Amino acid sequence: MRPLIHLVAGARPNFMKVAPLYHELVRRGETDPRIVHTGQHYDDAMSDGFFRDLRMPSPHHHLGVGGGSHAEQTGRIMLAYENLCLESRPDWTVVVGDVNSTLACAITAKKLCIPLAHLEAGLRSFDRTMPEEINRVATDAIADLLWTPSPDADLNLRNEGVPTSRIKMVGNIMIDAYVMLQDAIGKLTAYREFEVKAGEYGVVTLHRPVNVDNAASLAVLVNELEKVAKVLPLIFPVHPRTRARLEAAGFWPRLLASGLHVCEPVGYVGFMSLVSNAKLVVTDSGGVQEETTYLGIPCLTVRDTTERPITLTEGTNRLIAPGDIAISVADAMSGAFPRGKRPTLWDGYTAARVADSLAEAVVK
Ligand code: UD1
Ligand code: UDP
Question: At the fourth CATH level, which superfamily is domain 4-171+346-363?
Answer without folding.
Answer: Glycogen Phosphorylase B; (3.40.50.2000)
